[in-house]
Amino acid sequence: MTVMDRILIQHYQSPCGELILGSFGDKLCMCDWVDEKRRGIIDKRMQDGLHAGYETGSSEVTAQAVTQLDEYFAGKRTTFSVPLLFVGTEFQKSVWYELLNIPYGTTVSYGELSRKLGNPKAVRAVAASNGANPISIFVPCHRVIGSNRKLTGYGGGLPAKQFLLELEISAVSLL
């Protein structure tokens, strides 16, 4: 296999669950939960979309991701600079790009996110795209909550979502 027909993957043990990091070329294409219930769907979309197979190994990008995740979980990083590669439909990508605009330590509802995308009636489609995000934490889908301000589904499970939000809120109070 050449560099461009493989997705290099490695595992990362976060304080709230095990993640799979994946790089394709010089970009991070995956930071997803090992126990993700849609693991097979996401893996198929990644491999089909990039015409590449998984290969265990590290890269400069995944090493950079590990460093930045370590800093994030230590409360020392509020933004990420790892280059990202989105693999999905144009609508999914539009949602994921909008997720990048949600400030650290804050939340928005699915309805608010739909309105920001200029499509207020697309709440369910936005929620589905949010749930299909394969680059958790870097693309902060954990910052999206229900309109009643309650936590709703998350690929890493609600305890992981709660952990991430509490980590950010406590770090913001220290800044």
Automatic annotation (TrEMBL):
CDD domains: ATase. Its main location: cytoplasm. Residues 11-84 form the Methylguanine DNA methyltransferase ribonuclease-like domain. The active site is at C141 (nucleophile). Pfam families: DNA_binding_1, Methyltransf_1N. SUPFAM superfamilies: Methylated DNA-protein cysteine methyltransferase domain, Methylated DNA-protein cysteine methyltransferase, C-terminal domain. It is an enzyme of class 2 (transferase). Its EC number is 2.1.1.63. Residues 90-168 form the Methylated-DNA-[protein]-cysteine S-methyltransferase DNA binding domain. It is found in: Cytoplasm. It catalyses: a 6-O-methyl-2'-deoxyguanosine in DNA + L-cysteinyl-[protein] = S-methyl-L-cysteinyl-[protein] + a 2'-deoxyguanosine in DNA; a 4-O-methyl-thymidine in DNA + L-cysteinyl-[protein] = a thymidine in DNA + S-methyl-L-cysteinyl-[protein]. GO terms for cellular component: cytoplasm. GO terms for biological process: DNA alkylation repair; methylation. Keywords: Cytoplasm, DNA damage, DNA repair, Methyltransferase, Transferase. One of its GO terms (molecular function) is methylated-DNA-[protein]-cysteine S-methyltransferase activity. Involved in the cellular defense against the biological effects of O6-methylguanine (O6-MeG) and O4-methylthymine (O4-MeT) in DNA. Repairs the methylated nucleobase in DNA by stoichiometrically transferring the methyl group to a cysteine residue in the enzyme. This is a suicide reaction: the enzyme is irreversibly inactivated. This enzyme catalyzes only one turnover and therefore is not strictly catalytic. According to one definition, an enzyme is a biocatalyst that acts repeatedly and over many reaction cycles. Belongs to the MGMT family. NCBIfam families: ogt. This is Methylated-DNA--protein-cysteine methyltransferase.
